[in-house]
Amino acid sequence: MRPIVEYDFVDVGYPYRLRGGGNTQSDDGLIYSPSLTRLNAVQGGGGPAATLMARTGGLAIGGFSLHNRAAATIAVGIGVRIPNQFWQAGQWVDADTTYTDDTTDAQDDAGSDFPLETLVDSDGFVIMSRVPFNTISIDVAVTSSAAAPVRALRYSTVVSGTSAWSAALSNAYSAVASTGQYVITGTTHANEGVWAFNLPADFTASIGADGVLGTGIRTGFYCVNVRATVSPTAVAGVADSLSIYRMHFLTEGVADNGVYEAFFGSSEAPMLVAGDAVVAFFGTADPGNRVTMFARTRG
User: Fold this and answer.
1) Alpha helices for the chain (secondary structure H)
2) What three-state secondary structure class fits 41?
3) What pLDDT does 110 receive?
4) Among residues 73, 18, 10, which one has the least CA distance to residue 258?
5) Residues of the chain above pLDDT 70, percent
């Protein structure tokens, strides 16, 4: 870890799974961001005086601690938000492998305007990012209903020199597999669907000509396709908005009142340069969950 005076000290409760319903396209609830006033002046940390910072080389953390108080054994992680200018999203129709851009609706706070699926098997949505990502927050607006939908996530890879979709991802830390996720329960921060998974080693940006992965899908993007392989039969899920993240240190099996932590001694953990704010992931939302860390903007 660099000299402690170079870091901002953060010690806050974190009531969300990742971003919480209603926060997906806002700065509300972020742990740390160079675009916001430095937190040490508010929290009494020992870092430099409060100031507004311009991001130059990404974010770094000298150490962190994630305290689980959710009364359940959960997965946790810490990472960064990827700004909107790096990604786009839209709907996927599987029958004719067509992507239709709907980025404006994915990235605004207007209500109920980004369809997540249809009532036809294997329809869904696609996210395309200029930088790798491994977590998606979905601010659910309309509950999917009837029957038991099955949802799967696949990603862009290269097979024999050609871009292709991977097989369905397995063993995610958080997966929207049924109506239990695309649902609004009415409790605080509950209406958030989260996909969180280890970054696959063969996750690659699309190559070759536009359209290899489907009509409308561009080359040079890391692509994720979420589909309802078994669709709902009455009402399809709809989102208010989405956001994407590069999460690190994803770890499952953290017991209730357990802590997952890492402090890096003479080193630090640099985050994705494109990231503009630090966020955490707790498999079960609870206002008692806590994040403690040392963070800074890299020069």
Assistant:
1) 40-43, 103-106
2) helix
3) 74
4) 73
5) 87
